[in-house]
Amino acid sequence: MPSDRVPDRAPDRTVPTLLASIALLGIGMGVYLLALGQLLYQLTGSPQAFALALTLQGAAAVCVLPFSGPLVDALDSRHVHTACSLARAVTVAGLALTGLTRPPGAVALIAAGVVLLAFVDNVQRAALFKYTALHVEPARRARLNSLINVAVQVGALTGMALLGLLLLRTSLAGALLADTAVALAVAALVRSLPATAPEPRGPAAGVLRTALPLALHDWRAMFHRYRGDLTVLGVIVLCAADFVFQSCVSTLVVPLVAEHYGGRGQYVSLLEAVFALGMIASSFFTRYTQRAALLPFWCALQAAAALVLGLSAAPAVHLAALLAAGFANLSALTWLLTSLQNRAGEGEKAKMASLRMLSIGVATTALMPLVGHFAGVSLTAGFLATAAVMLAFTVLAAATTTTPGHAPEPTRAPTPEAAR
To answer: Is 196 helix (H, G, I), strand (E, B) or coil?
Structure first.
């Protein structure tokens, strides 16, 4: 690791360039997720297809988890990040071509593309984490970390608005090409980032060959160490709650618009944008929202929002429910992430982050088929299933935060892992 005492190792443009690249990634993801959900709904007429795509995405993330860290550790982080952006651009262009031509087996081809993008995205996140740790001054890291969630959500909000405008002029397949353009721009930005110190590297082949056994050993050792700490185990599981809810919203918003708004794509962008606005609003009130006692409330508020969305046909109610759900979602996510960091030992930060990613991947893989099944029955059933899932997380949150002596209060801003 480079010494923290070197004062000039991060030029002034490093943090702005990183934030710009993260915001651009958010724009691309905003366009990609909404366009993909609508495209699959057009091809199949069912929300189950998008739920399946998200399930495959979660499963792919679990599979790549033991290898992404070692791979990035063995290579230059900027080169890995740039290569991932280029791979994303090519893959999304392939998805756009599939959506445009709609050949036989189009859904299977799109599913394969989703899996590939899940691999690419997880490796890219690891590269971003490594670059930040090695090339951004410690005094500036906290500020960068506090702005990452805002950059992601502002980018996603911009992407959703951009998709609404693109759909006035082009098809969903054409709109996907916007993500390709964004990925190319991110590659150019990251390539321009400075390397303020040599990055430590290891032999890639040897690292990758031992990655899985070492990861399993580390996870087993950590679970053994924390087996009596119900807060840590509970928080690791709860880290999946907010991402599962986000996936449910992305899955169900398309049939919601089809049922109540005439299937117009602009309304999909609007409803997702309101959810993102709620998340952005939450980032301005962290001094009030980051309390252990509030975690069950944030989970319950998301369950209530899902219930309201399933039972009401009023647009104003939909907007209010999504705004409240977005606020609660980011409030819970931030508390969980920061609490987990504070509980991890000094030599276990990265391992704890891996366990968090594992929890998200496993929960997405296990729960999204359930939600997709009920969404195939009816829109109301899909939202009721989402509410039931969040209610279960609410019970776990209450049990976790009320365990005597085991409810830490976050004191630091979240790290770049929050960019997921």
So the answer is: coil
pLDDT tens digits, residue range 229-258? 667 778 888 988 988 999 899 889 989 999
**Residue 343, CB half-sphere, CA atoms under 13 Å: how many?**
25
What DSSP string runs through 267-328?
Answer: HHHHHHHHHHHHHHHHTT-HHHH--GGGHHHHHHHHHHHHHHHHH---HHHHHHHHHHHHHH
Question: How far apart, in whole angstroms, are the C-alpha atoms of residue 341 and residue 59?
Answer: 24
The domains located in the chain, with CATH, are 9-195+203-210 (1.20.1250.20), 226-408 (1.20.1250.20)
Token pair in block for residue 108: 């299977």
| Cα 212 from Cα 226, distance rounded (Å) | 21
User: Among candidates 240, 215, 26, 216, which has minimal Cα distance to 121?
Assistant: 26
Residue 420: the pLDDT is 41
CA distance 193 to 121: 19
Instruction: Choose among 156, 389, 418: nearest CA to 286.
Output: 418
